[in-house]
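Figure-free illustration: sequence to structure, shown twice.
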Amino acid sequence: MHTKKTWLIPLAALILTVPVLAGDVPGPDTNVLITFHVGNTDGGRDVVLKTYEMVVSANGEPVQMSTGAKIPIPTTSFKVSDDGARVGAPMTSYTYQQIGFSARISAKFNEDGSIQVRGRVDDSSLTGTPAADGRPFIQSMEQHISATLTDGQPLRINRVDESDTRSFFIQVQAERLDGNGERVATINR
């Protein structure tokens, strides 16, 4: 909802109602660009590996984004006799697991113009090292978000340190878009 001020202009004896520009709170029909950076830390330096962007309306309704693929995970089973001995050849079946990035995010503007972002982010990928039984090893991160962001300023929402040499992170940034889909924070800088 836009705040209005009434000004009396004595020269023309005219009353004008104009939106307050400083601290003007955008309405729920304003679009917000949400950007996620997923990466790792290599030798103390952040390396962004993947970037995902989605546009959400600032009406507080969640928006879903998903990218990736389902991969087969082999599961081997054996028929067993009454005495516990294996009978026949092993049977292999497959379970499919989603690998990739997904986000379910909502956004709305606070009275001070900051952006309230809520939702959930999941990122998973295959590592180069298979598990001991030969099945793929899946690295995944899940993060629930409830954060207040300043327009155009990034915030690290997740960091996982696996060892002295590997660290993974997810960073989120929210930017108000104008009616033409341009970033407002960039225009005003």
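We now fold a second protein in the same way, so the two outputs can be compared directly.
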Amino acid sequence: MMRNQSIFGLRFEVSDEFSPTPEELRVFLESPKKEGRRELHGLDMARYNELLDDMLAFKLYQRQNAGPQDLWERMFYEVLSHSCFSNTALKSAVEQYKYYVHALTTLNFRKPTTFIKTAKEEIGRLNPKRRDDAAKLARLQNMVDERERTLEALTRRGATLAIELNYLARYIRDNLAEIAKLCEVSISVLRDPKTEGQEERRLIDDIKTYFKEQLKNALHQGAITKQDLETAKKDVAALSREVSALLREDSYALAQLYEAIRDHTKKSALEIDALLERIDGKKNKDFVDFNRFFALIEQVLVSLISDYHFELNVKPAHTETAHEHILLEKRKENLNHIFEVLQKERRLRSPRRKVAERRKPKDPNYKGPERRTGKDKRTGKNIRAK
């Protein structure tokens, strides 16, 4: 089943100046969170990376037609793929967010600020009319000027990082909300009696046709006893009941899995939204004030990709007849039908993001840090949101 390309499809804009290269990102993820500690930044991604690896193996197995596939695996990974929760774009977004938070929180303003303060105090004690003091004063002033330029560069970098983090958080929030909507549509489809009813009747008719053909073939080869007819009727009735029960159980199990994904992504989206509102509500738009909120959003994202609990309770297929292969075949046919319907409903109901909804550098409704224009970036001008 194809993934919804509109979810995590439109990438966020990042500043080329600060966007990490693959090598820089790898080094960051393999570095310790705190000096002297063993816990690495990449450890937060471990469980999600395993999920993506399992998804890739599942898809490769499908493409290679390597043989019968485990029913649980097929149902589980088809739903994760269709819902877009298992998504390399989400992995990339979370990794970059972590990278930017680390880059922002490790900007060292204290060292140049402390030097400037100490140097200015020393300058105040010097007498420019004395030759020795005048020379020392000139050297100190040059060093102060250098540190002030360093502070200006740090401030520009911090402001840009804050803008990128803000937009990246909104990008993830909006796409998580789209995942929740897609799951809601899928749940409605799975619980719609029409989805199950028509396919159930078709499958039961197939079972009846199968046994009729079997009886016809037996009749051509010889006589059919009354016992043969009674056994066929009983098998048809039993398989019909069992197919109907399996269809309901599988639809219910899939709906529960979609509910778990919906609830998990919706919870994260709401938590991110609440933190963004607190950023928007701050009167002082200095990026330093946002650091705490960006760090909290990072915690939400780590929980999103590492603290999920998705269960799929698939009941084994058992039949009181000698025709278990028929039950399994009809179960697989029903799953094919379900995923086809879900894919069709996604195309009909899931709205693609319009051009008007894409990020604009001059969005009048945006209340967070203002994004610098290309001209401002070239001139190095530091813009703060008002």
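Summary for the second example: The chain has one domain: 41-353.
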